[in-house]
Specification:
By secondary structure, the protein is of the alpha/beta class. 32% of the residues lie in helices and 23% in strands.
């Protein structure tokens, strides 16, 4: 945990997608201090016309390389979130050539009772996970 959901426009190769996921995971590990094997990622590829992301008045020009990342996570501090945004932009630019203008990130927080990793149990509540 956290769970990262990526929305991408179609056209990337499997290798490009894997590099994107690996780079994003490295940023999350660094920013949130989670274990390396704490990795949950889902990719949703869409046709160009199925993704609209304007600039919200910030003067941001987006390209067809747009990446939207929704992160579902336990509560994090403001500084952890800000660090994650910086690291995601840095890692994805360095490793994948992604322009920081083509990255949108949203964090949705939840509580320990909102997670079950299998076996019909809420492992954060049962003490199986800390």
């Amino acid at each position: 945990m956290p769970l990262l959901k990526f929305t991408l426009r179609e056209g990337r190769t499997p290798q490009q997608i894997r590099q994107l996921l690996d780079s994003a995971h490295a940023a999350v590990v660094q920013a949130f201090g989670i274990p390396e094997r704490d990795r949950y990622q889902v990719v949703d590829e869409r046709e160009s016309g199925q993704v609209i992301a304007l600039d919200t008045g910030l003067g941001i020009d987006r390209s067809e390389n747009l990446v939207i990342i929704e992160i579902v996570s336990r509560r994090r501090t403001v500084s952890q979130k800000q660090r994650l945004y910086e690291l995601l932009a840095e890692h994805l630019h360095r490793d994948c050539g992604l322009d920081p203008d083509d990255l949108i990130v949203s964090i949705v927080e939840n509580e320990d009772a909102d997670w079950s990793f299998g076996r019909g149990r809420a492992q954060f509540l049962t003490g199986e996970l800390a």
